[in-house]
Design a protein that fits this description.
eight-stranded mixed beta sheet; single chain; binds aspartic acid; four-stranded antiparallel beta sheet; alpha+beta; Glutamine Phosphoribosylpyrophosphate, subunit 1, domain 1
Length: 369
């Protein structure tokens, strides 16, 4: 699969990705060492093809049912995903870096009310939007992350600033915002993040909590569950890109989970959990963050590629559809390797997602289609 995907055209690659979404990645019965040998032989025998540059994005995974998604809403989400893909593509097409493409794609989704990041972020238990984001440069393994920020319109920009303008990797809360101010970053009123839909989700969650668990400790709550629709709607956004120079980057941005408490931080800004990139493999995740942190999902996928020689799609499939499923962790990932192979597995009923290659045609999907 490695050889056929990497030497095929982008449309083959997209088709392969979408086929994987439909059918899942059939588990191979060959031994790990045989597969590793095969992968190595392909690399030695075949002249290394020019990397197929491109971009893959997600806008969150969860219980996304056709009944609960109106045609108008679906069209709007699809349009926003296509716009995000095109923004990233424009950067890559002019020879820009994968880091810039990831930032551009995430910006579009952070500015849209349809995703749980930036403008559409969910509310925490106290009715406040607290945002997390991370970005990582696969070429250098430089990384930047922020958590719990309340006044930053595009947290992905602040994460990048942490990476490029500080000696640190992660900053949180007031400290992260003081750093943003020191760098002259735009400051927005928290009202900017208000959307009626997210507010009503919080009200329903609070009501349900009062009815059913008046004295339960916070740890017994189910963050992200909409008690009326029964839906887990995560909605985090992420992007992974490979540029014409063969460099990978990954980024993720989120409002976290509705009704989160006590400064809770999910996986998105945790390098190796929700976001990871190295010279050969890059991943952005979405789902129930606590599981993604404990199973170091993004790094686990890339480690299987690195140490076991597994094709990217197989590594991602095992982690999302086996390891996470057994643990009870709902969600999905987007991932790309340095040869341009793409995979987008998820174990929930839907994941907003899309991919774009050199031809500039956006491919968007929501359900298991
Ligand atoms: N992973 C995010 C978190 O746990 C939520 C999401 O993906 O929507 O904070």
């Amino acid at each position: 699969m490695l050889a056929s995907l990497s030497s095929g055209s982008w449309s083959h690659l997209v088709a392969a990705s979408l086929v994987m979404l439909t059918w899942g990645c059939a588990a191979s019965t060959r031994s790990v060492s045989a597969k590793r040998d095969e992968a190595m032989m392909h690399e030695e025998a075949a002249p290394r093809p020019k990397p197929k540059w491109g971009l893959v994005i997600h806008g969150g995974a969860g219980v996304i049912s056709r009944e609960n998604l109106s045609p108008e809403r679906e069209a709007a989400v699809r349009a926003a995903l296509a716009q995000s893909l095109q923004a990233g593509h424009a950067v890559l097409a002019r020879g820009g870096s994968s880091l810039d493409a990831v930032s551009a794609a995430i910006h579009v989704m952070e500015d849209s009310p349809y995703f749980n990041a930036g403008k559409g972020a969910v509310f925490n238990h106290d009715g406040v939007n607290e945002l997390d984001a991370a970005i990582m440069d696969g070429r250098t393994r430089a990384a930047g992350a922020v958590a719990g920020v309340r006044h930053i319109r595009n947290p992905i920009d602040l994460a990048r600033m942490v990476m490029e303008k500080s000696p640190h990797v992660m900053m949180v809360g007031d400290g992260a915002e003081a750093f943003a101010r020191s760098q002259g970053m735009e400051w927005v009123d928290p009202k900017y993040f208000y959307t009626e839909e997210r507010w009503q989700s919080l009200q329903r969650a609070l009501e349900k909590e009062r009815e059913t668990q008046p004295s339960a400790p916070a740890s017994s709550l189910t963050p992200g569950l909409d008690p009326v629709t029964g839906d887990h709607k995560f909605g985090t956004v992420g992007a992974v890109a490979l540029d014409a120079s063969g460099n990978l980057a990954a980024g993720t941005s989120t409002g976290g989970m509705t009704n989160k408490r006590f400064g809770r931080v999910g996986d998105s800004p945790v390098i190796g959990a929700g976001t990871y990139a190295d010279p050969r493999c890059a991943v952005s995740a979405t789902g129930h963050g606590e599981f993604f942190i404990r199973y170091t999902v993004a790094r686990d996928i890339c480690a299987r590629v690195e140490y076991q020689g597994l094709p990217l799609a197989e590594a991602a499939h095992v982690v999302v559809n086996d390891v996470l499923v057994k643990a009870g962790g709902e969600g999905g990932v987007i991932a790309m390797d340095h040869q341009g192979n793409v995979t987008m597995p998820f174990n929930s009923s839907g994941m907003y997602r899309g991919v774009i290659g050199e031809d500039g045609v956006p491919h968007v999907a929501i359900f298991q289609e």
